[in-house]
Design a protein that fits this description.
Shape: elongated
Strand content: 15-25%
Number of helices: 15
Number of strands: 11
Order of helices and strands: HHEHHHEEEEEEEHEEHEHHHHHHHH
Bound molecules: zinc ion
C-alpha cells in the first residue's frame, strides 16, 4: 500500500506548493512616498535582524545537540502558557533521539515581512513559523521538515530575540514515531528498524527479514544520493496508519508514508517549496509496518514492497502519478523477472479488465475484489519494459510519472501515453 492522501493532493496543487501562499518579501520593499520624492526610509527603531535569527537558532541547535531538555527549555520564555506541552513533547523526543543515535536535527527561523520592526524603538512582538528539520543517517538524502507556529519577541534594540511560545506541529507532519512512545532501534546494514521498547522482542525476531526486504529493494532500485538504508517503524493498532499526518487507507498491513523535501528556509517563511537541489532526491518515505503484517507469510516481500515505494519517492515532483504506476513498480520490485513465472496466468486473465481500470482512479484500482489481480497486472507493465526495453526504461517510466503534476504531464514527459503503454504490455503478454 501507499499513501495517496490529502498530502499528495496538496503537493499536487501547483498553486500551494510552488507559488506559496502567504507572507513574503513584498512588504519589505520600500514604497514610494505619496508626498514628495521617493525616499527609501532606513530601517530605524527596533528591528529584528538576520543576526538575531542566527543567535536564537544557534541556541536552539545547541540545545538539541546537547540532548538536554533543560537547556532547550531555557530557550523558551518561562511565562509561555503552553510550555508544559512543549516540554513533554521534547523531553520524549530528545530521549528517543539519544537512544536511536542516528537522527540529526536543525532549527530554522524565518523572518516574516512587515511585522518585525517598531520604528519608535520599543517592543516588537510577532508570530511566525518555526521549522525543525532532521535527517536520519543513511535514509534521507535531504532534510525532512516539520513546521510549527511560534511567537517571538524583541524587547528593545539591544535585547536578544526571544521565543515566547511554540505551538502545535503542523498536522501535515505530525506525529512522528518518536512522539508517540518510548522507542528504540535496531540498525542493520540496509535498515533502521524503530519500535516501542515493549515491542523489542518482536523487532529482534523480524529484523533479519526486514533487512532482507530492504536489501532487495536497494539492489533493484536506483539509490538516491546519500541513501543506503530504509526506515521502518513497527506500529501498533492505536497508531497504525496515523503517523506523519496519517494515510487514507486504514486497513492495509503496511504503508509508505511520503515525506517531501521542502526547503526548510522557505518553510520557515511560510512557503512550501520543494528543495530542488540538483542531483538529490525530491522526497523520501518512512515505512509503517502494522501489527497485522507480522503474521503474513510473505512478510519479507511486504518489507521489500514498501521499501521500493520509499525509494521511488526520490522522483516525486508532483502528485500526478497514476496508482498503477506506483503499485506496479513496488509489485515488480518485489521480484523482478519472477513475476510472470509466479502470476503469469492470473495476469493474462485479468489484464483486459485492468487496462480499463488503470486509466481511472484510486477507488477503481483498490476498492474491488480484483485488487490483487490489478497489483500483479500493474507489475507486469514494468516487467514488459524490463524485458523488452531494458532496466533503464523501468526507472524512466516511474520517474516520468512520479515527476508529473498530473498523469497527463507524466505521460508527456515519458513521451508515451498510458493507453499505449498498457496496450503494448497486453500485446507482449499475448492477453
Ligand atoms: Zn504498495
Amino acid at each position: 500500500m501507499e499513501n495517496v492522501d490529502r498530502r499528495t493532493l496538496l503537493l499536487g496543487s501547483a498553486g500551494l506548493l510552488l507559488a506559496g501562499c502567504s507572507g513574503g518579501g513584498d512588504l519589505e520593499k520600500p514604497k514610494p512616498s505619496s508626498k514628495g520624492p521617493n525616499i527609501v526610509r532606513p530601517r530605524t527603531g527596533n528591528v529584528v535582524t538576520e543576526a538575531d535569527l542566527k543567535e536564537l537558532t544557534g541556541r536552539l541547535n545547541a540545545a538539541v545537540r546537547s540532548g538536554d531538555i533543560k537547556q532547550l527549555m531555557q530557550v523558551v520564555d518561562s511565562e509561555d502558557f503552553a510550555r508544559g506541552d512543549f516540554e513533554k513533547r521534547w523531553r520524549r523526543r530528545l530521549d528517543n533521539f539519544n537512544r536511536l543515535g542516528f537522527v540529526e536535527g536543525e532549527w530554522y527561523i524565518g523572518l516574516p515581512g512587515g511585522r518585525t520592526r517598531n520604528s519608535a524603538g520599543g517592543l516588537v512582538e510577532y508570530s511566525g513559523d518555526l521549522v525543525f528539520a532532521h535527517t536520519i543517517k543513511g535514509c534521507d538524502g535531504q532534510q525532512v521538515v516539520e513546521s510549527m507556529r511560534a511567537d517571538y519577541r524583541k524587547k528593545s534594540t539591544k535585547a536578544p530575540l526571544e521565543l515566547t511560545h511554540v505551538g502545535e506541529v503542523d498536522a501535515f507532519f505530525d506525529p512522528s514515531i518518536w512522539d508517540v512512545a518510548e522507542i528504540d532501534a535496531i540498525e542493520t546494514k540496509h535498515a533502521n528498524i524503530v519500535f516501542r521498547i515493549k515491542d523489542a522482542k518482536r523487532a529482534k525476531a523480524y529484523a533479519s527479514r526486514i533487512e532482507a526486504g530492504a536489501k532487495r529493494a536497494l539492489q533493484v532500485m536506483p539509490n538516491p544520493k546519500g541513501v543506503d538504508k530504509i526506515f521502518y517503524a513497527l506500529t501498533w493498532p492505536a497508531v497504525d496508519g496515523k503517523l506523519w499526518g496519517g494515510v487514507a487507507v486504514g486497513d492495509a498491513d503496511a504503508h509508505a508514508y511520503y515525506h517531501p523535501f521542502l526547503d526548510p528556509k522557505e518553510l520557515a517563511r511560510g512557503q512550501k517549496e520543494v528543495a530542488g537541489n540538483k542531483g538529490l532526491p525530491l522526497a523520501t518515505g518512512r515505512v509503517g509496518l502494522h501489527q497485522g503484517s507480522f503474521s503474513r507469510p510473505d512478510f519479507e516481500d511486504v518489507a521489500c514492497h514498501e521499501a521500493v515505494h520509499v525509494l521511488a519517492e526520490q522522483w516525486r515532483g508532483g502528485g500526478g502519478a497514476p496508482i498503477w504506476a506506483i503499485e506496479g513498480l513496488a509489485t515488480w520490485g518485489e521480484s523482478p523477472s519472477g513475476l510472470m513465472a509466479r502470476e503469469g496466468a492470473r495476469i493474462k486473465a485479468a489484464f483486459r479488465s485492468f487496462e480499463s481500470v488503470a486509466l481511472k482512479g484510486y477507488d477503481e484500482f483498490h476498492k474491488t475484489s480484483r485488487e490483487y489481480d490489478y497489483y500483479m497486472c500493474a507489475g507486469a507493465v514494468y516487467e514488459y519494459l524490463d524485458q523488452e526495453k531494458g532496466r533503464d526504461a523501468v526507472f524512466e517510466t516511474a520517474d516520468a510519472f512520479y515527476g508529473g503534476e498530473t498523469r497527463k504531464a507524466g505521460a508527456k514527459k515519458l513521451g508515451r501515453s498510458e493507453k499505449d503503454l498498457l496496450a503494448a504490455t497486453r500485446k507482449w503478454l499475448g492477453a
